[in-house]
Amino acid sequence: MRLGGIDWGRLLEMMRKELRQTRRDPQALRVVLVAPIVQLIVFGYAVNTDIRNARVILFDRDHTSVSRELGQTLTASGHFRIVETAGRAQDLVEALDHGRAVLGVEIPRGFEGDLAAGTPARVQVLVDGTMSNTATVAQAYASQIILRFGQEHSSTVAQTATLSGGRLPGVDLRVRSWYNPNLESRIYNVPAVMGSVMMLMALLLTALAVVREREVGTLEQLMVSPLTPVELILGKTVPVVGIALVDLTVIASVAILWFGIPMRGSFLLLFFASLVYIVCGLGSGLLISTASATTQEAFMTLFMFFLPAMIFSGFFFPIANMPTAFQFVSLLDPLRYYLETVRGIFLKGAGITVLWGQIAVLALMGGAILWIASTRFRKTTA
Amino acid sequence: MPRRTDAHPAPERPSRRAPDPGPARVPPRLSVRRLWAMAAKEWLHIRRDTRSLAMAFAMPAAMVLLFGYVITFDINDIPTAVLDQSHTAESRDLVDAFRSSGYFRITRQLASDADISPLLTRGTVRMVLVIPPDFARNLAAARPAPVQCLVDGGDANTASIAINYAQAIAASYSAKAVLKGRTLPVPAQAESRVWYNEDLKSSNMIVPGLMATIMMILSALLTSLTIAREWERGTMEQLAATPVHRLEVIFGKLVPYLGIGFVDILLVAVVGGVVFAVPFRGSAFFLIVTAMLFLVGAQGLGIFISAAAKSQFLATQLAMLATMLPSLLLSGLIFDLASMPTALQLISLVVPARYFVVALRGIFLKGVGLHVLWAQALGMLLFATAGLGLAVHAFRKEIA
Known about the structure:
Number of helices of chain B: 15
Radius of gyration of chain A: 29 Å
Number of helices of chain A: 15
Largest sheet of chain B: 4 strands, mixed
Largest sheet of chain A: 4 strands, mixed
Radius of gyration of chain B: 30 Å
Oligomer: heterodimer
């Protein structure tokens, strides 16, 4: 970039024009500020893979105090809520078919007697597998609860356990979870919202703003003005950097103050990494604008860029679980590196010594994209 | 670019009543011919924008492939480090049990405590097993033998799955090591049977439900700009000056997009069936009826946003906000609604995709029909009516 060849006064005027244009459109401005908040709330509360209050239909064929206690134990765990009791086996089928319950538990006749006699008792659990992740977790919880319930209520196991001082002998796995002791999903997801919001803002604000000027015809006016292409690009992008940094501050504040996300690293590093990342977003937006003639085209192209960027970044689902080919594709995704950085800074308090690799890749990508975009931009406009 | 907004010079049917006091440009009767002309004009717009058209078909296929492969809760090969201070046959057996389970990949053998922290911080490993020196002695004495299991809890979901696997491995190892062939009586056991999705495949969960999200996003992408574009380019005044009725405008704009949406529905079903072998157990007719109703609602919503926003930039923003996030996250597509806070559950009640996802899974996986899904079908009907009503309402205000 020919930094020397820039008329700073003209550039400042151009930026003032851009800011005025944004300010004149109060609805758009509101969206720019509201979108991050909405995303934060949704991601902070909705993205959770643990289950609570899963609907259960109970078919108790034993009708004893022990079988009723098993029902209560299921509810007391917090994972299940008994919404119905069945009178016959057919009721279970209907409840699952209609989706009124996701789990059907059938306690066999003679359950109490079997436990007392030490005969293995089998509890039938029917699982609605349509929601496979909920089903997997619910199934595991139900098995654990039933197993433990049996151990507590059976005379034989009680004897075995007393032999070894109240504990079953064997490996005693003591799990300790670092960085996130209570395993809350939101600690992982809320910082990631920064990545998606800033990418979306940078893309929308640059790509659509440039394409709109082209569509309305004011881009030609700008072209015939004495502004050089570099000044034009800077004038278009620098105000967006400002808006994105405002969004960053808003999200970080809400994350820390409202959601209580621990911030263990340095704010300075966060801002620096974000700045590098925004350049990637701006460059991509500019690139899209050079390749689109209408807002409709730009919007479609933007979406086809943004959605894969979200999916491949490990935002929802860990990259390590993806098919190998997808893992390679994810290496091209700037959002991936930014998420690693943000999560590292927030959760682990990682510093530049740990994260320099990610930030360096982001800087390289940003530089490359911006270079390609501005060359193309100059060609398509000049 | 020349726009053919005046699709016809309007030779009118003789039904025009003479004393029409109101706006003379609103004809009293709807004409199929005008509606058709409007649809043809809109189709011309779409066809000229080859990229958007290509994407309208490429995007659904791409989304099904991406989501179908990426969304999985089966976690394998969790990178794990071991700090074995026991150095006995027993401790090596335990590590082998972890390795051979397939869930964990032992990538490092550590020498001291100090190595643990940097590995977890850099994310080189996700789990560290610390086997203390007295491990074998404890096992031999039939005492509980503590083993530390340190997990990177950052990604809570992966971490809790990993913990479950680790505990299961430890339990089965203990059973083997301690009981040495004797069997511990299991007093009560759950016998699980999974219905509808017997292998608990994530793609069976995602692909049918994804149809709702795709319809929603597609409508946002395609229809949310149709009216805003005319406003911004000034062709709306031309359109207003023609005798075309506002219902004809709305329906005319809707028809081509409904055609695209219909093809996309088939596309998603075929890709899901061929690539992911998603079962289809219900009625195709019922699927198409509910899907078309949903599509009408979603595109009506898109047109409403377009008419209300009047600017393309605002329309894109609103469309993204109104469609993508809710239909992805508040529809029960990926995350269980019952586990969310009450406030979000209440909000999700007005997310149309929520009902459609239930209907789609019912049709594909459970093979149930109208007798079970009547409430959802009614919901689709309501959504279609509401979407169209909103679109027509917002549009009337502007033109009259």
